[in-house]
Amino acid sequence: MKVLVIGGGPAGSTAATAMAQAGLDVRLVESAHFPRYHVGESLTPSCRVVLDAIGMSKILDDHGFVKKNGGVIHWDDDQWTFDWQAQSGVQSWQVDRSEFDALLLEHARNNGVAVTTGVTGRSVRFADGRPVAVECSPDDGEPFTIDDFDFLVDATGRNGLLSARHFGNREPLNNLRNVGIWGYWTGATLLPETPTGGINIISSPEGWYWVIPMAGGRMSIGYVTTKDAFARDRHEHQSSDELYRHLIAASPTIAGLTAGAEFLGVTRVETDYSYIAAQFCGPGYAIVGDAACFLDPLLSTGVHLALYSALTAAACVASMDRGEVDETEALRFFEFAYRRAYMRLFALVTIMYERYLGKDGFFRTSDRLIGDEQSGQPDTDVSSRSFAEIIGGLSDLREAADSSTRVITDRLREEAVRAQLQVVHAPDSDGPDFTPVRGDPLSDAESADYRLVTSPRLGLERVRAARP
């Protein structure tokens, strides 16, 4: 099978590498020339698991990125620490995305992917419901068409070649229309209780701050707030630099962490509007990473969703190529797995922003979201274990690889998601309805017929007989 991947960020590079390693003929085109700057520096432990599967983890360990063991959250009056290294024995990294993304793309090349940079996919032509050609524009030269592929993977990020430009079926999540402003420092410090290499997340009355340790003694420090609050504050300051300095000084905690530190210069601003497409796949195509959905960066899950969707899509296509599963079944599994992961994280982020339940209530919600039947009992110990597993992406990988309890736990999880969002968006709330529920496959029991496997080879494995 010939596969065309449009986009060479983490989702596209990972999907391409995994499929090439599975023996498929893979071509990738990317509009940028790497290295190029990108935000999204704090990776979850699930990223290590995925990158282990494609042979990248040692490369990243040897590169010199900061090893990340967990983090500290100060939210309202609550404080808690999560330590993935202590809980699961898995580390991740704090990365410079320009270097990380370039390493991933080079790894794809080294595994036989035909990579071309400086080429933008402009439009997709369909025939009989399947993509059959992609119109491309190079940085220099004449536009051309790629039409020699059997399957298309859209990894075009927020540009959304299929979801935004072709189908126009992205739904913005209006309760998460936020803006981030950030910069880099030397000499800044972390909260004293932070696990080695960990992130700090610190709330404020109108938003929250991140503090991320980077290689070379640098610190990435940013602030996220609503678009309305940002517009108001920006109007009151002459420049983004001046606003950023004001926001750093406005938080006693952040001001303390940057006391005596040196700001390295450029202030960056980016909108973080969350969205989700009505469909993540269809005959002949799958949409991975930000091209399908984007979630506010509060829980640092962007690269997790990118790599998780990439590995899952690659497993589906590899099994389709080998005749182990038909396309309809494979794509049903992909849609199920990716949308479930997004919805659960969306539930946690929304609750933290809109109607925070207090630490114990929040942790019990996390228990329910991974199907812990003991959650909510008076004698149950309340801890951050489930929360850490969810935001670490480990629950997604575990469930994709183990379908033995999926029907039961997904039913519980669906009820928990819907119940919690009814609390968040109660009739007297100004928040929108939870639109991603419409048409979601959370209760699609047919998806439990398969599980994702990486050994002895990447693919889907049937776990029970097909229905008559």
Would you write up a description of this structure?
The protein is α+β, with helices and mostly antiparallel strands and 468 residues long. The chain folds into three domains: 2-41 and 97-173 and 277-327, FAD/NAD(P)-binding domain, CATH 3.50.50.60; 42-95 and 178-272, D-Amino Acid Oxidase, Chain A, domain 2, CATH 3.30.9.100; 339-462, no CATH class. The chain has 15 helices and 24 strands. It has helices at 10-21, 45-53, 57-63, 84-88, 97-110, 161-166, 227-235, 240-250, 252-257, 302-321, 327-354, 358-369, 385-391, 394-401, 406-424; strands at residues 2-6, 25-30, 66-68, 70-75, 78-83, 92-94, 114-117, 119-127, 130-138, 144-146, 151-154, 170-172, 178-186, 199-204, 207-213, 218-226, 262-263, 268-271, 275-277, 281-282, 285-287, 293-294, 450-453, 459-462. Strands 4, 5, 13, 14, 15, 16, 17 and 18 form an eight-stranded mixed sheet that branches. Strands 7-2-1-11-21-20 form a six-stranded mixed sheet. The longest helix is centred in the last third of the chain and has 28 residues, at 327-354. The model is unreliable at 373-380, 404-413 and 419-445 (pLDDT under 50). Belongs to the flavin-dependent halogenase family. Bacterial tryptophan halogenase subfamily. Residues 424-450 are annotated as: Disordered.
